[in-house]
Structure formats: structure tokens, C-alpha cells
Write a structure and sequence with these properties.
Chains A, B: This is Ribulose 1,5-bisphosphate carboxylase. Chains A, B: InterPro entries: RuBisCO, RuBisCO_lsu_C, RuBisCO_lsu_C_sf, RuBisCO_lsu_fd_N, RuBisCO_lsu_N_sf. Two copies of one chain form a homodimer. By secondary structure, chain A is of the alpha/beta class. Chain A has 19 helices and 13 strands.
Amino acid sequence: MQPNDVRGFFADWASLDAEDYLLLEYYFECSGEPELAAAHLCSEQSTAQWKRVGIDEDYRPQFAAKVIDLKITAHLPEPSYSLQPEVRGAMTACQVRIAHPHRNFGPRLPNLISAVLGEGAFFAPGIPIVKLLDIHFPPSFLSAFQGPQFGIDGLRQLLKVYDRPIFFGVIKPNIGLAPAPFAELAHQAWCGGLDIAKDDEMLADPDWSPLAERAQLLGRARVAAEQATGVPKLYLANITDEVDQLTRLHDAAVANGANAVLVNALPVGLSAVRMLRRHATVPLIAHFPFIAAATRLPCYGVHSRVFTRLQRLAGFDAIIMPGFGPRMMTSEAEVLDNIAACLDPNFGDIKPSLPVPGGSDSAATLEHVYHTIGHVNFGFVPGRGVFGHPHGPRGGAASLQQAWAVLATGQSLNPPPADLPAELAAALQTFGSH
Amino acid sequence: MQPNDVRGFFADWASLDAEDYLLLEYYFECSGEPELAAAHLCSEQSTAQWKRVGIDEDYRPQFAAKVIDLKITAHLPEPSYSLQPEVRGAMTACQVRIAHPHRNFGPRLPNLISAVLGEGAFFAPGIPIVKLLDIHFPPSFLSAFQGPQFGIDGLRQLLKVYDRPIFFGVIKPNIGLAPAPFAELAHQAWCGGLDIAKDDEMLADPDWSPLAERAQLLGRARVAAEQATGVPKLYLANITDEVDQLTRLHDAAVANGANAVLVNALPVGLSAVRMLRRHATVPLIAHFPFIAAATRLPCYGVHSRVFTRLQRLAGFDAIIMPGFGPRMMTSEAEVLDNIAACLDPNFGDIKPSLPVPGGSDSAATLEHVYHTIGHVNFGFVPGRGVFGHPHGPRGGAASLQQAWAVLATGQSLNPPPADLPAELAAALQTFGSH
């Protein structure tokens, strides 16, 4: 790129029609001039060659991604990460906002991902270190998407739970356990007060636990628990499988008694989820395998909230995400960013998704999670905290409701009040040193 | 996990039936005991809780992933990368081989990805830094997959090109250019000697270049070029789109005159590609957006050859990958690893995929690429090297054939022999300083 060409990739945001552009925020480290590097980042993700040889034309005004803001944030003696092949010497750390014209590809998730996380982002000349920090969509783009069918309000109506977090539980053990004892564990947990008993994200449709049989037994157990407790329950069946099986498995799970389905979003693909959303009659819940492979490092890859926004766009009613606590190796700020992305009111007519931050939770962590989030619009998803409770799943689920009963009155569990119910006392003792 | 439990996640490889297990190689850095960390890595990706509370049972013998080899490779004063939340202090770097029982999920790509790149890999207690280095499948697992329909031999038969690299070219410009002039560029390149004129991976089905119209004009231009040159040509149409559009777009592209289709593998999803493979009548070619987000760092994420193996498994006949040269920020060793994964004979009955290492190539880089690979079973995919050639696309394509004519006789272009054809001389002059 010639110095003269750089200007073609810069624009004044006020001069552009906001409805025509996605807004992208990247962090990057470059060895040369930041303006040239930022222009390359734009060029490579849009009009890399903007004219034919020998013809006087320029596709940039309509089709180029354009820098609308560029800040130098630091001067570094070396790149933040050592790379192969080696990149040595001083780097300039920058933050850039780019307006990307969505007319280049339209409201299609695979093409969107290709544009903002493709060769343009990761192979722009002079930019070995780059991270997509956030993405914003104009209403004209969002309006092409259905988003969640139920959303938070819809989930609450299904469960008739309006004033507290929604209690999920990951049925454990799962890998290797046959459907009948698996259903019995769920039944106990529902009777103890769990709202949603869920399959582990690793539990598929294997011969030792066929989905149809599992859904049938869990569906019966669910109805029995609903009759015993008088309140609605959800069985969240994992239908993660090959894309061409998703609608069949959705139908089989629902016909047999599941009333929500889990999909591992990235492994299946967000576009396949969007396809499933058109067909689904029950809530879709996302799980997060693979995402951390691209999101953990502070200066490289993509911020996890980008995937949260895309999962909401694809139509998930609830999004399970790495939560608080040292086990999940995710900063409190990042968890809160993801929760905010689920709830962001600036998302067209698309409903919010229920954020479900998870990881080694139990009655002993509920207070911290609740106070850190600051409101009740979240799902809480213990595994061992319910199914590894010393009194069994019924006691584990009861301990969550008991913990909430304390917190709902404004009291703290740290230290706990006198005369705790036995299940809550056992949970605090077993899981509290975590 | 209690010290006693660790042993349940170790096994002697000779005692296992190799047909029942995937073999995984991970690099990781841990703060505590390597044996405990490796056991957690296995536990979290399989039987995290292997028994019910109060019942004497153990699902590990049949269902646990098991360490079969653990080596300490270095003692580090700090983790290789600074993280948020911070992890400080000495780390032990390890390499581990794990046998993962595929009965846990069966021959399903999304469940495979969830198992080996999910919560198990990235959230194992004590392992903040981890990279999946490689994966090996037993024949019993591979036999469930179709793999490539054409493979290298099939592509060569379609093109009647048997003894040299296959010459692809990315038609440029593309974003913003209408189908008629776009077809004219391709026609010139085919007539100059290009085998496969391809859409850019960013070129979808937008209103300014509808796929059906583009395929029709390119199809006509292709037939005209075949008649003019007397040899078969391929038009590689990018059908990357929402999953529920893939078969429709495949059919529209093929009916109108495309005879190969491009899919951005990760953005669309490997499982959707496997679905398309069942339907496709023409070669499927992969492009690599998003992959670098998880593969660039030497010690974190996943090695790109894992995705190459999975793309071959999903059925791609050719796999475009970051190639040689500084622009692609990929080590020569990594490119060669990916080429080897395409060709690996130890892959059941699944055909090899044509490796297509790309990035800023031209007649000036062909010699280095050819000699580094060491044989002719690769695709060569210039963009500007053909379509930005000073003599136009016909000259750019001719320069590739002319360069090959020199190399095929065992001569070098560095320095070039006397009496070079004009197109090749111009290519070396324009692109040779790269």
C-alpha cells in the first residue's frame, strides 16, 4: 500500500450512515506506522485490491472498511507474546474502531465471522498481535435475525419463577451412567427445588444413553416432580450432534419429554443454531466448549463477549459461560462483560438471553455471584454443588433454595445465621472452603 | 481429586484396545504436581464425577480419558503468557499423551470438538496454559467418515494435470466488482494458463454480485476458456453462507456453471461441511478464516494441523491454509505439518486432501514453495500475483506456467536463466522483491 492509499481507509464517522456499518473494536500491536497498519487491517477485511489493473476505478468509498478512530495505547519493547516465526523489537499498541460495511456480505453469520475474524484480522501486514474486542450491529442488520424465542421473560413464564435466579443443575455422574439412574438423580434434584436439570455438555446420543430413551425417562421424572412439587420444571437435553441431526434430535427429545435443549454453540456452529432456532419449539441453551481457545489471552484472539453477542443473535434463550471463581480462569470484569452482552438493551428488537455464569458453584458461592452481578436476572448452574451434595441431589437442590431464602431477606451467609437448615449447613461445610 | 484417585486416570497403552481410543497430545503448564494436573485434564474431558454419592461404582475403566505418557519438558519461572486473572510463580511445562475413549460420544464432529477442546482442556484445575498439539484417530472411528469425494487424484483427473502443482488464482478485485467484469478477469486468467479461478473467501452472495448470476457468467467464461485452450478448467464459487443455504447454493452454483465450491470451514462449521459433503457433486475446497484466532500462539490453543485433519475428515478435497512467506506469520515447520496432515497415509481409507498453502504468492515465490514442499502435490494460489500482474490476469497466469517450465527442467529462477518470456520477467520484477 502506498502512503497515498492509506487515506482511502479512513473516514469521519459523522460522514457515514450508521445503519450501513458494523462497528468493530480491535486491539493490535504493530511494528511500523499505526496508520498504515490500521489501513491494512481495513483493506484485508474488505477491498484488498480496490481496482482493476489499468482501469480508473475505486471500490473503497462504498465497500472499504474504514478507520474511524485510532489511539496509541502503549509503546512496547517487544510484542506481548513471543511468536513463531519470531517477531522482535519495539511495537506500538493501538486500539482502533472500524466501520465495516455490511453490504459486503449481508446478515449472514458465517460471512460475518469470516470478515471480522478472518484473514483480514489475523494476517494484516505488520500486525502479528491482534484481538477483536467488541462488535456492534446497527438495527438494519439486527432486524434480519430472530434472536431468542423465549428470552428471559419467556423462561421465567415457563418456570413461573420471577423474583430470583433460575437454578440449573448439571446431572452428575453422566458419562457412562444409564438413563434410568440418571433420571432418578434428576427427579431427586427437581423435588429438592431445582428448576432445570440439565445434561452435561459432553453427554450426547451414545448407545449407552440414547437421547430418545433418556428424554423419555427424564420427561416422566420431570412430570412426576412437577406433580409432587406443584411447580413447573425443565429437563434440558443435550442435542449437540452433527448439524443434519439437530432438528431430528430436537423433535425426538421434545416428543419424549424434554422441554429445553442444549447445544454446544461453537462446535456445532452458530449458523446451525440459527437454523435450529427457526424450527425449535422449546428454549435453546448454549454451552461454551472451544470458545476459550480463542479468548483467554488478554491481547490476542477475540473477546468472549463477541461470541456472547453472536450466540444471542443466533437465538439462544440462555447462554452458559465461564463464571466467577478461580476454577474458570476468567476475570470478574470479563464475566460481567458477557452478562452485559446478554442483557444489552441496545440490540434492536432482539430479546435478552439469560446469562448463566458457571463453574464449581454451590450454595456456598451463590451470595458472591448474586452480589457481583447485582440483580436476579441470571441462571446459576452447579454440578457437584447439587449432585455431589452429601445428602444427595435433593439435598443439594434444597441447599440452593435455602441459601436464596437467606439472601432474599438481605442477610448474609458469611457468617451464616443461626439455625441453618441441615442441607444448607452441609453445603457450606462441604463446598464452602472452595 | 484425592491422591488415590489420580491413578484411575493413568493407563498402560499396551493394555488398551487401540481401536477404542483417540490419541491426543497436549502441551500444558501447571503450577502443581504434573500427575495431578494431567489426571484433571483427563477427568474434566470425560468422567468428571465417576460415581454416584453413596454408591460403590466407578465409570473410569470404560469411560475415562487416560494418561498414557507424561513428560516434563521445562521448568518455567512464570507462565509463558501473562493472564487475567493473573497467574504468577513457577510452572512446570509438560507434554502428555491421552487415550480418549470415543465410545463416550461416537463419530460426531461437534462432540469430538467439545471433548478435546472444551471445558476439559481449557478449564482443568491447575492448567491455565494448554495447547492441543495433535490428534490421531483409529480406523474404527475414521470408517464412519466419508472424507474427500475427489481427493488429489480426483482433482487431477478433472483438470488433466498430473505432473505439476495445481494453479489456483483468487480473482481480484472482488468486493464491489459486478459479475460481468469479474468473469472477464477469470476468462483472461484461464486463457493464460490458470487451472482454477476462485472467488475470494470474502465474496458471498450479495445483491451486487448474486451467486447464481456470477456462476452463470463465470461458467460461460470457463467453457469459452476450455474451448480456447483445449484443457479443462474449474470455477471455484464461494458458497459460504448460512448452513441452511449450503445445499441450495451448491446446486445453484453448479447448475449455473461452477464446478467446484469454496466453504469457509470454521465459520460455517465442520459438521455443516460434512452434511454438504453428502450432497455435493463437485469438489469442496476449504478456506481458513478464524482458525488463526486459536492457533497462532506456540503454547496456547490448538495446533492448526488438528483443524487440517478435521477438515480432511469433514470431506474437503483441497484445503487452503496459511502458507510460506513472512506475510502469513506461520513458521515453515507449521506449514509443513499442515501439508503432512493433508497427505498422511495413516488415515484409514480416507483420501488425501490437496494442500494449498497460500499468501502473497506469485511466479517469484513458486520455486521456494516447491522446493520447501519437495514434491508437486500441492495447490498454488496467488491473488495479486495473477490478477495484479502488470500484463493483466492472462500475463499473470502465463507467468506461473512459465516459471514452472523452468523449474520442471531442474533449473532455478534465482538467478533467472537468460531469455525469459516477457510475462515471467515482469512477474519477477514486480513481485520478486517480496
